[in-house]
C-alpha cells in the first residue's frame, strides 16, 4: 500500500481557505478515501447518525505526480482528524512561503513510523516541505487503513449517496438562510422543511407554545417542476405547503436544526450556489453545492460537494 | 371584549412596525431571566408589556402607537393576554436580519387567540409566527406608585453610570442601601456583606453625573441586589451610545421607580439613523418598580 503526491498550489488554497474549515465544522474526524482518479473527504458514511458529507476532487485539482497503489484496486481509505490535517497544511504552507523558492513543493505520503515512546509502528500522513535551505516534515496521525471489506462498504455507501432528489431548489442567499436558522435554534430543535415543485422552500419550527416559519418562493428549480396553482398567493404558507403535499407536488421532512446549521457551515467552502432537495420517500435532505470554473458560470465538474441530513420523521410519508 | 374567534369582526389590533431590532432591544431590557411570563395590555394608546417577580419587582415596557407605521385598534376595553417573554423576543429576533430593514405586522387575536406576526417585505420570502397566549393571572401585587409629600424625591443619572455603579456593587453582598439627602445634595449607594462598598453621587461635584436632582428630606431604603441588578443588566447598548439618562424616584413606602428610555430607530437600508433627533419620539419607555426590603425601620417614613 503506497501513496505519495505533491500538492498543487490551487489544491493548497482550496483545502486551506475553503474546504478544511468547512469540513472541520461538520465533524472533527473524517475519512480520506483515495482512488486512482479521486481524493474524497467523507463524513459519517460508515454509520453514525450525524450529517453525511462528501467532498470529491479530481486528483489533478489537488495533486501533481500522484502515485497510488494497493492490492485493493489501488484504493486506500483512512480516518483523519480534520483540524490536525489543516494545521499541518498551514504550517507546510508557511515554510513554503518562507523559503521563497519555487521548488519548495509540499509532498504528502503515507508512512509507518515508530511514535515516540511506543513499540508498535503507527500510520501517518506525512507532509514534507523541501526548500533549498530547509526541509520540514510533519506527521499527521491517521487510523489504520480501512480493510478491503470496509473500503467496499465505503464505496457502496458513496454510490448510494449519489442518488439525486427528483426536485431541487436553489437557495438564493446562504448567509441569509444561515442567519435565519441560527435564530430559529432559539425557538426549537426540530425543523419541518418542505420543498415544492413550484420552487418553494418552507421551513417551520413548531412547539406547543409557538410556531415560526419562513417561506422562500419562486426559487430556481432543477429536475421535476410544476406550475403553481393560480390563486395560491392568497393562502398562508402552511396551507399552501399542505395543499402541495396533498397534490403530490411537494415533499416535507423533519430534520434537526443542529444538523441544518452544520450543513450551512459548508458556505465556508464558498460554493457558487446551493440546492436543496428531498430524496424520494423522504429518506434524507440533500444539499448540493455547486462550484463554477473561476471566471465563468460553468460548473466545475472536477469538484463536487454535497451533504445529506438524516431525517427524523418522514413528514409527508 | 375581543373579537369572536374566526368571526368576521375586526381583530383587536393590527399594527405594523419597521424597527424590529428596536422592539427587541426594548423588550430585552426587562428580560432578567430565561423563562419569564409577561402580560401584554393593548389600548388605543399603544402596547404595554408587564413582567414581574412576585411581590418584589415589576417592569413595564411602553410601546406607544406613534412607534408603529400602522396601528388599527378595534377593541373595547383593554384586552390583556399572557405569553412567554423569552419566546416573544426570540421569535421577533427571527424577523430581524442584519442589513435588511424588515416591516412586520402584528395581529391579535388569531383564530385560537394566538398572537400572529408576519413579515411584509417581499412576496417571495415571508416569515411568520404564531405565539400561543394564555389568560393572564390577576395582578398579584399592586405596584401603585405614590410620590412622598408634595415634592417627589427624584434624581436622574446617566444610564451608563447607573449600570456601572450597580455592577460594582455586586461583590459586597445581597442588599444595597440607597440614601438620598438634600444637604449637601447627594445620593449614596451602599452595600455591606463580604465587604463594604459605597458609591456617592454628589450633585455639585460633577455636572455630568447627576443630570437632575430633587429632594426635600433624607430618605433611605434597602433593596435586594438581584432585583436592583435586573433593572439595568439588560439595557441595550444603544442606551449607552445615545448617552441617555435614567430617572429614579422614591415613592411612598420606599417604592423605587426607575425609568429608562430606549431608542426604537427605523433602519434604513444598511444603517440605522444614529441621530435620534432625526426621528424624535421614537422611544420606548421602560419602567421598573422595586419594593424595598422590610428588615429594618427605614428612615423617612412617618
From TrEMBL, chain A:
Its main location: nucleus. InterPro entries: HUS1, HUS1/Mec3. GO terms for cellular component: checkpoint clamp complex; nucleolus; site of double-strand break. GO terms for biological process: double-strand break repair via homologous recombination; meiotic DNA integrity checkpoint signaling; mitotic DNA replication checkpoint signaling; mitotic intra-S DNA damage checkpoint signaling; nucleotide-excision repair; telomere maintenance. It is found in: Nucleus. It comes from the Eukaryota. Keywords: Nucleus. PANTHER family: CHECKPOINT PROTEIN, MITOTIC AND DNA DAMAGE CHECKPOINT PROTEIN HUS1. Belongs to the HUS1 family. This is Checkpoint protein. It comes from Dendrobium nobile.
From TrEMBL, chain B:
Keywords: DNA damage, DNA repair, Nucleus. It is found in: Nucleus. SUPFAM superfamilies: DNA clamp (SSF55979). It holds the Pfam family Rad1. GO terms for cellular component: checkpoint clamp complex. Belongs to the rad1 family. It comes from the Eukaryota. The keyword Disulfide bond does not apply. This is Cell cycle checkpoint protein RAD1. InterPro entries: Cell_cycle_checkpoint_Rad1, DNA_clamp_sf, Rad1_Rec1_Rad17. One of its GO terms (biological process) is DNA repair. Gene3D superfamilies: 3.70.10.10. The keyword DNA repair applies. It comes from Dendrobium nobile.
Amino acid at each position: 500500500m503506497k501513496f505519495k503526491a505533491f500538492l498543487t498550489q490551487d489544491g493548497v488554497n482550496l483545502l486551506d481557505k475553503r474546504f478544511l474549515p468547512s469540513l472541520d465544522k461538520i465533524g472533527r474526524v473524517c475519512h480520506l478515501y483515495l482512488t486512482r482518479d479521486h481524493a474524497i473527504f467523507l463524513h459519517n458514511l460508515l454509520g453514525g447518525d450525524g450529517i453525511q458529507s462528501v467532498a470529491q476532487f479530481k486528483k489533478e485539482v489537488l495533486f501533481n505526480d500522484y502515485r497510488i497503489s494497493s492490492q485493493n484496486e489501488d484504493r486506500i481509505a483512512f480516518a483523519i482528524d480534520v483540524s490536525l490535517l489543516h494545521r499541518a497544511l498551514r504550517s507546510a504552507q508557511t515554510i513554503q512561503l518562507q523559503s521563497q523558492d519555487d521548488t519548495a513543493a509540499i509532498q504528502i505520503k503515507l508512512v509507518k513510523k515508530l511514535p515516540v515512546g511506543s513499540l508498535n509502528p503507527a500510520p501517518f500522513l506525512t507532509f514534507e516541505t523541501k526548500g533549498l535551505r530547509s526541509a520540514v516534515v510533519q506527521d499527521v496521525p491517521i487510523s489504520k487503513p480501512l480493510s478491503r471489506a470496509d473500503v467496499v462498504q465505503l464505496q457502496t455507501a458513496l454510490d448510494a449517496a449519489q442518488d439525486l432528489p427528483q426536485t431541487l431548489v436553489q437557495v438564493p442567499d446562504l448567509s441569509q438562510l444561515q442567519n435565519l436558522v441560527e435564530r430559529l435554534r432559539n425557538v426549537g430543535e426540530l425543523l419541518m422543511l418542505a420543498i415544492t415543485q413550484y420552487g418553494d422552500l418552507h421551513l417551520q419550527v413548531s412547539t406547543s407554545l409557538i410556531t415560526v416559519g419562513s417561506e422562500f418562493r419562486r426559487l430556481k428549480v432543477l429536475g421535476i417542476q410544476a406550475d403553481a396553482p393560480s390563486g395560491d398567493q392568497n393562502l398562508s404558507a402552511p396551507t399552501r405547503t399542505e395543499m402541495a403535499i396533498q397534490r403530490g407536488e411537494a415533499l416535507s421532512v423533519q430534520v434537526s436544526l443542529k444538523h441544518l446549521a452544520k450543513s450551512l457551515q459548508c458556505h465556508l467552502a464558498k460554493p457558487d450556489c446551493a440546492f436543496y432537495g428531498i430524496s424520494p420517500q423522504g429518506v434524507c435532505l440533500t444539499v448540493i453545492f455547486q462550484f463554477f470554473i473561476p471566471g465563468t458560470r460553468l460548473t466545475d465538474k472536477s469538484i463536487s460537494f454535497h451533504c445529506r441530513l438524516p431525517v427524523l420523521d418522514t413528514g409527508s410519508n | 371584549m375581543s373579537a369572536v374567534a374566526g368571526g368576521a369582526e375586526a381583530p383587536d389590533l393590527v399594527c405594523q412596525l419597521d424597527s424590529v431590532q428596536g422592539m427587541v432591544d426594548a423588550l430585552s431590557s426587562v428580560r432578567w431571566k430565561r423563562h419569564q411570563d409577561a402580560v401584554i395590555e393593548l389600548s388605543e394608546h399603544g402596547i404595554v408589556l408587564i413582567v414581574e417577580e412576585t411581590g418584589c419587582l415589576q417592569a413595564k415596557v411602553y410601546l406607544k402607537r406613534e412607534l408603529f407605521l400602522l396601528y388599527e385598534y378595534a377593541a373595547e376595553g383593554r384586552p390583556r393576554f399572557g405569553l412567554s417573554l423569552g419566546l416573544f423576543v426570540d421569535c421577533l429576533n427571527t424577523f430581524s436580519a442584519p442589513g435588511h430593514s424588515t416591516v412586520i405586522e402584528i395581529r391579535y387575536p388569531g383564530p385560537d387567540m394566538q398572537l400572529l406576526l408576519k413579515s411584509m417585505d417581499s412576496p417571495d420570502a415571508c416569515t411568520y409566527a404564531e405565539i400561543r397566549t394564555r389568560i393572564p393571572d390577576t395582578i398579584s401585587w399592586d405596584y401603585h406608585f405614590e410620590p412622598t409629600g408634595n415634592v417627589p424625591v427624584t434624581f436622574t443619572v446617566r444610564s451608563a453610570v447607573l449600570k456601572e455603579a450597580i455592577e460594582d456593587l455586586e461583590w459586597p453582598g445581597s442588599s444595597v442601601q440607597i440614601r438620598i439627602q438634600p444637604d449637601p445634595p447627594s445620593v449614596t449607594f451602599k452595600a455591606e456583606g463580604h465587604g463594604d462598598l459605597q458609591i456617592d453621587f454628589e450633585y455639585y461635584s460633577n455636572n455630568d453625573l447627576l443630570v437632575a436632582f430633587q429632594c426635600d428630606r433624607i430618605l433611605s431604603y434597602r433593596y435586594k441586589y438581584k432585583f436592583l441588578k435586573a433593572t439595568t443588566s439588560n439595557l441595550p447598548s444603544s442606551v449607552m451610545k445615545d448617552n441617555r439618562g435614567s430617572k429614579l424616584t422614591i415613592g411612598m413606602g420606599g417604592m423605587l421607580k426607575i425609568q429608562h428610555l430606549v431608542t426604537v430607530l427605523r433602519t434604513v437600508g444598511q444603517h440605522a439613523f444614529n441621530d435620534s433627533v432625526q426621528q424624535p419620539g421614537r422611544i420606548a419607555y421602560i419602567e421598573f418598580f422595586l419594593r424595598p426590603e422590610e428588615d429594618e425601620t427605614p428612615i423617612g417614613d412617618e
